[in-house]
Structure formats: structure tokens, C-alpha cells
Amino acid sequence: MLRKLRVAAYAICVRDGKVLLARSPGPGGVPEWVLPGGGTEHGEDPHDTVVREVEEETGYRVEPTALLGVDSNRLTRPSRVGPGRLLRRTVDHHGVRLVYEARVTGGGLRFEVGGSTDLAAWQDLDVVPGLRRVPLVDAGLRLWRERPPAGRAGRGGPGEG
Hints:
Elements (H helix, E strand, L loop, with lengths): L1 E11 L1 E2 L2 E7 L7 E3 L2 E3 L6 H13 L1 E21 L5 E22 L11 E6 L10 H12 L15
Parallel strand pairs: 1-7
Antiparallel strand pairs: 1-5, 2-3, 3-4, 3-8, 6-7
């Protein structure tokens, strides 16, 4: 079994009761909302990753103001090489996701072209539970609300965290 580790950094930007989210095509092309952010490049500090990724996906320049915590997930799936081609190997994927609180310092809302997302928007915090979203959105918002001293929020129910 192939083992793969991915370190990524994401932002929770909240202002006026709204959170900044990006939209990803999702599995099977069904759109789902995600936190702006993504994978660190070799040698890149996660702080710099979140600044770069938020600007790429939303058009905003941000300043990380706090490291809220870390969310980790692990899943096993078939490996892929190229679009739609499956290999017989299985991948044990471990994602380590650093979640930062960030504030917008400049730029303007725009959509990413040719990237992993196609739309960015401010969503009311009270409508987020009704959105089709990845579990990291809930985990990130829990970290933002709870601000756990050890950087790990309580786990939610099925489909969360």
C-alpha cells in the first residue's frame, strides 16, 4: 500500500456574521463549499501557504492573525494516475490541515480561473449548516468558535470533522 502525507493550510475569515468560502467541483462534479486554502509546496511555510492560497482562490490578500489548530484525516482509496485511470494499488492518505484565522487586508473578491475552485463568496454563518460542504468547513468553524488551547476542537457528528 502506498502511503501519502499531505500538509495543507486553510483560512477562516469571518466578518459581519459571514464566512469566506470557496466552491470546488467536488466528487462527481457536484459542487461543494470548502475553506480557502490548500497544499503546502516543498519548502513553503504553512503561514505563507494560506496567504498564497486565499489570494489564488478568492482574490483577497489576508493576514493570518491566529493559528486556530490542526485537523487531521486519514482515508484509504484506490490510487489514480491521470484522469480517470485507476491503478491496482491502494493509497493510505493522511491529510494534516492547519487552520488559521485570517483577516482581509486588501484585494477584491474574484473567482479562481483554472484552479481547484470556481467561485468564492461570503456566506452567512447561520446558512452554512444547510450548504453542501466538506467536513473541514465544520471542523474549521468549531476551531474558530471553541479556540481550544491544544488546537484540537471537539469532534462533531457523522459527516463532520
